[in-house]
Design brief:
- This protein has 187 residues and is mainly alpha-helical.
- 60% of the residues lie in helices and 5% in strands.
- It has 2 domains: 13-108, Arc Repressor Mutant, subunit A; 116-184.
- It has 8 helices and 3 strands; from the N terminus they run αααβαααββαα.
- The radius of gyration is 20 Å and the shape is globular.
């Protein structure tokens, strides 16, 4: 277990479709990619209405470079300009400039009826509760791993119990991640 790395899975739209990005020479329209990025950000940050290009969107791309970097678009030096152009010309994306939010802010256009806001509030509340629970589990996992590594290597019984607790907590954190994913997919 000393080499047991705690890794957490991202459940965004891009990661759900990761098999698509792992094929040789994956292709996707830039506007479609921008829609996927915004839907992923909406899932990961349900409280944000608009996402800033220079921080939220570029950070998301950097965090998912292991998948997105395989696209021909990101192998060019001017990929940021291509992304900006796609955000500005995609009919499914709304700029914050028109809503006094400012330049460089984008969101997916609303396609829901009046009941959508109530549904979004419920999803957001449930998502936040899962997020809080997952954060608590992540802290506990780290503490248990440290405890395992530092102190109880000689006592086999305690050692096995800590190992079992860590594995149970990891499984629970993954389950919560799946529940968060299912919330993002509610229609």
């Amino acid at each position: 277990m000393s080499n047991h790395d705690v890794q957490f899975t991202c459940y965004c739209s891009i990661c759900k479709k990761q098999q698509y990005f792992l094929v040789p020479n994956p292709k996707i329209k830039t506007t479609r990619l921008c829609v996927l990025i915004l839907s992923s950000l909406r899932c990961l940050k349900p409280l944000n209405e608009y996402f800033q290009l220079k921080t939220d969107i570029y950070d998301f791309i950097t965090d998912h470079w292991h998948l997105l970097g395989r696209l021909k678009l990101f192998q060019q030096q001017n990929w940021k300009k291509a992304i900006l152009d796609a955000f500005n010309h995609c009919p499914q994306i709304e700029s914050g400039k028109d809503k006094s939010v400012g330049r460089g802010f984008y969101k997916l256009k609303n396609k829901y009826d009046n009941n959508a806001s109530e549904k979004v509030e419920l999803k957001t509340e449930l998502y936040q509760q899962y997020e809080e629970l997952q954060n608590i589990l992540n802290i506990n996992i780290k503490k248990l791993c440290l405890l395992y590594r530092k102190g109880f290597k000689t006592e086999l019984f305690i050692n096995n119990n800590i190992y079992s607790l860590v594995n149970a907590q990891i499984m629970q954190a993954r389950h919560i991640g799946k529940m968060k994913l299912s919330i993002c997919n509610l229609d």
